[in-house]
Amino acid sequence: MTTQHAVLALGARKPIAALVADEAAAGGPTLARNLSAFSLVCIGVGATVGAGIFVLTGTAAAHFAGPGLMLSFVLGAVASGLVALCYAELAAMIPVAGSTYSYTYTTLGALPAWIIGWDLVLEFAMAAATIAVGWSGYAQSLMADAGFRLPAALAAAPAAGGLVNLPAALVTLALTALLMRDNRGAAHTNAVLVVLKVAIILAFLGLGALHLRPDLWHPLVPANEGAFGAFGWSGVFRGAGVVFFAYVGFETISTAAGETRNPQRDAPVGLLGSLLVTAALYVAVAAVLTGLVPYRELDVADPIAKAMAVTGLTGFSAAIKLGALIGLTTAALTALYGQARICYAMARDRMLPDVFSRIGARSRTPFVAQGLIGLATAAVAALVPIDILGELVSIGTLFAFILVCASVLILRRTEPERARPFRVPGGPVVPVLGILACLALMVSLPGDTWLRLLAWLGLGLAIWFGYGRRRIAASPGFERTSPFAGPGRSPG
User: How far apart are CA 331 and CA 43, in angstroms?
Assistant: First the structure.
């Protein structure tokens, strides 16, 4: 490998045709394309409607928006919708695994692709571990209701007073085994759990609607208390920034484009359909919650259970805990799924070791990557308390969303003739608005969030310059991926 090769690797871009060709001609088993539009909608709803709907709604109402939380969820849905439209265009046009990583590689080059891929590694892996620890808490609560309690040593991480969080590790390993087997079985399991979860939420909405107190919705936007974000319209916008992260699970759908039967049609349906279902559920839950309980009393760990207690339907609390448990299960399942597909795509492009791109002959899944990720995530979930895991770099998600919107703008200019089965309406307006919306939410985040992101990306850059850059520059297909070399010419 020459020095010039290594330098060129920084800006090497991979054409869309090369991405698709590599996916189809890997020289061995390939990912199985057997997911339908309904499967994608269920993946999106499974990833998005998790514990947030059972916890986040109460916290945001009590601290920021009051009954105006309904408007916060609408604003969050609008911001997410702008990004989802951009995801839909790219997922239909570039039907491969990798999501934002792949889109960035073909528009901005290898180094930016590595940065966003590294960012997604943190986002998906830490999210899965956090969800597993939350799942353990709900599972142990249900067990306690039935009279069973785990020994303290097996109930929590060392820093939380235990020795190992056994339920968190076991659920992670069980979901990993399911995903390693085949994507069809995992998709069917996810769909069943999503239907059950939505049924429980709809039951809460139906029962709660019978006991609503409309006077609790007045004023819809409580008066500001003298500080930005403390109610008033600034509180509605601050609430939108908080609840925005309740919508980000739809990103997982784009990682499944390489396993979809008809990605040009089904990927946009999955992305936009899941977002519509999620937005409707969140707005409805916010309306019923704030119509049952004074919003200042909703700052509790289980606001929906509290709302049921107000109606006298305390027996429904077990169903609420079961719904939260199911929600966490589907969220963990889809996070582990998305993480493996990101690692698979990066290994396919030689940014990670080749073992991560190995596809099982029978399972047609990246089973090695899935297994390694599952083991690592189970270890983290078993040994690290949730308050530390909760420091997931949410700002990284917004960073990824900005690159998705920018990729739409860049490809409209660099490849205007390429077929776009789904096209973002409004020309450049929607992608630009998506970028501005994400930037506005990033600016509102605290400084320590930015520091965590910079520290993680700094570690990623060190790995890139010590490993990934050299792997790409030495790969046989590097010459054709460089924007500095003409057809058939070597950059060296």
Answer: 9
Please give the DSSP secondary-structure letter assigned to residue 165.
B
The H-assigned helical ranges of 352-428 are 367-383, 386-389, 394-414
The CA distance from 34 to 412, in Å, is 30
Task: Give the three-class secondary structure for 61.
Answer: helix
What's 223's DSSP letter? Answer: P
Q: Tell me if residue 35 falls in helix, strand or coil.
A: strand
- Residue 106 and residue 481: Cα distance in Å, rounded? 9
CA distances from 223 to 70, 72, 219, 405, 459 (A): 16, 15, 8, 35, 45
Residue whose C-alpha is closest to residue 212's, from 311, 284, 299, 282: 311
Taking alpha carbons only, the member of 104, 88, 112 closest to residue 16 is 104
Location of structure tokens 């979930």: 381
Query: Would you place residue 474 in the very low, low, confident or very high pLDDT band (cuts 50, 70, 90)?
Result: low
CA proximity to 474, closest of 354, 294, 367: 354
Q: Tokens 């925005």 identify what position?
A: 244
Determine the Cα–Cα distance for residues 311 and 392; give it in Å rounded to an integer. 36
Give one DSSP letter per residue of 269-281, joined into a string.
HHHHHHHHHHHHH
Residue 465 structure tokens: 């310059």
Q: Which of 16-25, 219-228, 304-313, 315-324 has the lowest mean pLDDT?
A: 16-25
Paired strand residues for 35: 260
- DSSP code per residue over 302-345: -HHHHHHHHHT-GGGHHHHHHHHHHHHHHHHHHHHHHHHHHHHH
What whole-number distance in Å separates Cα of residue 326 and Cα of residue 308?
A: 19
Question: Rounded CA gap, 111 and 194, in Å?
Answer: 37
What per-residue confidence (pLDDT) applies to 10? 56
DSSP-derived secondary structure letter, 147: T
- Say if residues 145 and 318 touch (Cβ distance below 8 Å): yes
Encoded amino acid at 84, one letter = A
DSSP string across 473-489:
HTSTTHHHH-TTS-TT-
- pTM for the full predicted model: 0.78
